[in-house]
């Protein structure tokens, strides 16, 4: 993917990278400061359609801030975020999700007392549950009941896909860390996204469920979904992503195939003393 004139050790920034396919997500010259702290400093990169792209970097590199600027939790000071050709910079998180760019969310406290099934029923946008109670006319009732039947079907398909059928009736608050992550991803899938952004999806997950989560991510990717994974753990990204973006001190330090990035001197230096590369 890199420019032929670019040395592998000096991974090409996005602007020099020849992108072969569709590029749903583009981040250009993103900058975000907090008082005197420059958290993201002129970061630019792109994510190709159908790819499993990893965003890594040592502590404080600006990954979470970038993630939050993309998903609408933060408004960048400058720069643009474009999703499927549309400028979504500074939009609200719900507006961005409606566009099909969906991030996983921790299960909110009020949802912890609901079962896995109820959590999934409530996940989709324009959710019809509330309408069900409001509908008074006979015609509308029939339509809403049909929509609810379809929603239930989709919930069960999702439960089967994520292999959480055995805990379908358990309250979300009783789930283990890994089960919660599966539910978080299942909830995101219920919104019918085009692209998923996962922030440390494997943090606090035991090895068995970690494998299951990764399998599901790969399955979904094969179905055509695009993923951007933000991870501190370099090994997870190197083993699972085909394209890796490395941030350091708020900027994109390098990007490319895992093997190339792993051997990049600047990346090794940035990670030195942090984790073993
Ligand atoms: N809300 C905030 N207020 C002030 N400074 C912040 C805020 N959020 C992030 N920062 C600072 O911005 C810089 C980048 O932080 P960020 O959390 O984006 O990095 P990160 O790569 O996600 O790090 P980590 O892997 O440790 O989570 C850090 O210096 C951090 O202290």
TrEMBL record:
Single GO molecular function: ATP hydrolysis activity
GO CC, any one term: plasma membrane
UniProt-annotated stretches for the region Disordered: 1-23
InterPro entries linked to this entry: AAA+_ATPase, ABC_AA/LPS_Transport, ABC_transporter-like_ATP-bd, ABC_transporter-like_CS, BCA_ABC_TP_C, P-loop_NTPase
Record-level GO BP terms: amino acid transport
Xref: Pfam families: ABC_tran, BCA_ABC_TP_C
Biased composition (Low complexity): 1-12
Domain ABC transporter residue range list: 25-274
Keyword terms, alphabetized: Amino-acid transport, ATP-binding, Nucleotide-binding, Transport
Annotated function: Probable component of a branched-chain amino-acid transport system.
Family: Belongs to the ABC transporter superfamily.
Protein name as catalogued: Probable branched-chain amino acid transport ATP-binding protein LivG
Organism field: Natronosalvus hydrolyticus
């Amino acid at each position: 993917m890199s420019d032929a004139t670019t040395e592998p050790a000096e991974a090409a920034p996005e602007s020099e990278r020849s992108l072969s396919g569709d590029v749903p997500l583009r981040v250009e010259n993103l900058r975000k400061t907090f008082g005197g702290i420059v958290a993201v400093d002129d970061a630019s990169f792109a994510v190709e359609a159908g790819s499993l792209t990893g965003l890594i970097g040592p502590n404080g590199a600006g990954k979470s801030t970038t993630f939050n600027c993309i998903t609408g939790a933060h408004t960048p000071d400058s720069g643009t975020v474009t999703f499927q050709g549309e400028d979504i910079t500074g939009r609200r998180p719900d507006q961005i999700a409606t566009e099909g760019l969906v991030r996983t969310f921790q299960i909110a406290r009020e949802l912890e007392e609901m079962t896995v099934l109820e959590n999934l029923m409530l996940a989709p946008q324009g959710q019809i549950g509330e309408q069900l109670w409001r509908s008074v006319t006979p015609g509308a009732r029939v339509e809403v009941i049909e929509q609810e039947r379809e929603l239930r079907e989709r919930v069960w398909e999702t439960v089967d896909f994520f292999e959480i059928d055995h805990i379908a009736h358990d309250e979300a608050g009783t789930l283990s860390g890994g089960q919660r992550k599966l539910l978080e991803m299942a909830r995101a899938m219920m919104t019918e996204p085009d692209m998923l952004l996962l922030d440390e999806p494997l943090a606090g997950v035991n090895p068995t469920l970690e494998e299951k989560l990764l399998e599901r991510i790969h399955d979904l990717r094969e179905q055509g979904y695009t993923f951007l994974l933000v991870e501190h753990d370099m090994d997870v990204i190197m083993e699972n992503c085909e394209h890796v973006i490395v941030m350091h001190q708020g900027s994109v330090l390098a990007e490319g195939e895992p093997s190339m990035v792993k051997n990049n001197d600047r990346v090794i230096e940035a990670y030195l003393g942090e984790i073993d590369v």
